[in-house]
Design brief:
Length: 454
């Protein structure tokens, strides 16, 4: 691996190409968050109203906070904990390291379960493609599988084992190469499915649901959900972007990378919506079905397509890969910490993270069935991990990061980092700083308080 730089006694690797940088950041952002979580959250929270609030949050909080994380990571070339230690003597800021590492493990704990579902659906498409499009049968099939307990738990473990293999190969060979190859393929196949959905009888109703905002539906809980989704989808708040941009060369233009990532990520979520909602109405599914939504609707779409079995295989394969490029990025947060701060070998660190996330993954897979009585704050373990990370830890981490870059970090560092690589107009830098100083912290605080009590 070329271009290694020494930081705190260990060498930090670098991504080789500009294209690789885009592929890994987009690879991290695009995942189950777009294709599974976005449609179900939009479905639960009223469709168009949710989408509108979500887009606003991406623009005024998402892009600025991606920039903030990249400034911190590229300036220090260090992990979440090390980066704040290098930039400030005040110990308070290191809480971000704790939030980042806890949050990353919590997400791995439920994300691996859903990724495991994609593996089971991939297996079914290959070996026993049923061609069923009746929602009641698809519903029963999902239930039988998800509540089984050990089978989904085994798939979650299997997924984490595959995640382990990529991570163990290291940053450039493992992460960069895989992302380069697979992200463009996912995009193309989604376009095909969108065109297909646009020809369904439920097209009009589906698009109206997704794109026509009913302003009376914009409530504090919709805002909390949309904010959580914006942070989740852009992989923000835990320091994924800090960790990855530590591997960027100094010539990488941050504002451009952040914007391209946000645009492609949002576009993928909208494509997923266009793919799912016409089908929801065509096949008589409920938009508010929750986490199961996509897994009950997609098979119906495939059943009615010519060559449906192969579309189904291709889709679940790509969804699995999109999940993998995301879990790789969240696993890298604790791994970079263990390697750079604790002096562990990459192998040891990767193994540690894999074992902890496997334990969490098994418990949350079981929480759909045999262990559903075990609840925390009234939520099953799976829902608890999701709520804790998306609606609490990510926005909290995002708030601390934006306050840090907006108020504490030397403005010269901000200008230097945002301006390098490609000239960025002053207005844009000022707008980003304004969002980091005022809009993001105040917005997060208000939504937090009203959403959590509301
Ligand atoms: N953004 C990813 C998705 O949409 C998930 C993800 C990866 C993530 N890394 C993260 C979410 C870090 C929060 C924090 O699927």
């Amino acid at each position: 691996m070329k271009n290694k730089v020494k930081i705190s006694g260990t060498s930090v690797p670098r991504f080789a190409t500009r294209m690789g940088v885009i592929a890994v950041t987009v690879g991290s952002a695009v995942g189950l968050g777009n294709i599974w979580r976005f449609p179900y959250e939009a479905g639960v929270h009223g469709g168009g109203a949710f989408l509108l609030v979500y887009l606003v949050f991406i623009a005024v909080m998402g892009i600025p906070v991606v920039c903030a994380e990249m400034i911190i990571g590229r300036k220090t070339h260090s992990n979440v904990h090390g980066a704040f230690a290098a930039l400030s003597h005040q110990r308070f800021w290191r809480v971000t390291g704790v939030i980042g590492i806890t949050g990353a493990l919590a997400i791995l704990g439920f994300y691996s379960v859903v990724a495991g579902w994609t593996l089971e659906y991939l297996r079914q498409s290959l070996t026993s493609f049923s061609g069923i499009h009746s929602q009641s049968l698809l519903h029963a099939r999902f239930d039988a599988f998800a509540t089984n307990g050990w089978l989904p738990a085994a798939w979650a473990v299997m997924f984490l084992a595959l995640n382990h293999i990529v991570l163990a190969r290291g940053v450039q060979k493992g992460i960069e190469r895989m992302s380069n190859l697979l992200m463009p393929m996912l995009f193309v196949i989604m376009l095909v499915f969108c065109v297909n959905s646009l020809m369904m009888p439920g097209m009009k109703e589906g698009l109206t649901f997704l794109f026509k905002p009913d302003f009376s539906q914009i409530t504090p809980s919709v805002c909390l959900g949309a904010m959580g989704q914006a942070f989740f989808s852009l992989s923000l708040g835990l320091g994924t972007m800090i960790t990855y941009s530590a591997y960027f060369n100094d010539g990488v233009p941050l504002v451009r990378t952040a914007s391209v990532t946000a645009v492609l990520d949002t576009l993928t979520a909208i494509l997923a919506g266009i793919m799912i909602f016409p089908a929801v109405f065509t096949y008589g599914e409920q938009p508010a079905a929750g986490p199961r939504l996509v897994f009950e609707v997609l098979p119906a779409i495939f059943a009615d397509m010519t060559g449906g079995q192969w579309w189904s295989v291709a889709f679940f394969l790509l969804l699995f890969i999109a999940s993998l490029t995301s879990t790789v990025s969240m696993s890298e947060i604790p791994i970079a910490y263990l390697v750079q701060q604790r002096g562990m070998s990459r192998r040891g660190a990767t193994l540690t993270v894999t074992l902890i996330s496997m334990a969490l993954g098994v418990v949350s897979a079981m929480s759909f069935g045999p262990w559903s009585d075990f609840t925390i704050c009234g939520l099953t373990f799976f829902n608890f991990l999701d709520f804790l990370s998306s609606n609490i830890l990510l926005p909290l981490g995002g708030m601390i990061i934006s306050v840090f870059v907006g108020w504490v970090l030397d403005r010269a560092v901000v200008n230097e980092q945002l301006g390098s690589g490609r000239q960025v107009p002053r207005r844009i830098v000022s707008a980003i700083v304004f969002c980091l100083r005022w809009v993001a912290p105040a917005g997060i605080a208000i939504i937090f308080i009203t959403g959590l009590i509301g």
